[in-house]
Predict the 3D structure of the following.
Amino acid sequence: MKQELIGKLNTYITGQILKRPDKTLNPNEPLISGGLIDSFSLVDLAMFVEQTWGAKLADTELNAQTFDTLNQLADLIESRL
C-alpha cells in the first residue's frame, strides 16, 4: 500500500507541481526543506491528498516535520485510512 501511495504522490508532485513528469523523486528526498515545494504548492498537495484518499489534514500538519518526504506523507495518509 505504501509503495502505491508513494507512486501516486510522486506522479502528482512531478507532473502537476514541478511540471517535470519525467522526474522521479526519492522517497526520502526533502520536498519542503529541500525547496521543491513552496507554501502554495503545499496547499495544492494537501488538497490532492484529501480528494484522492479522503485523508483530512490539519493546517498545523503542513510543515517540514510531518510532510517533508514522500515516506512521511505516505505514513501520514496510511494513518488516516
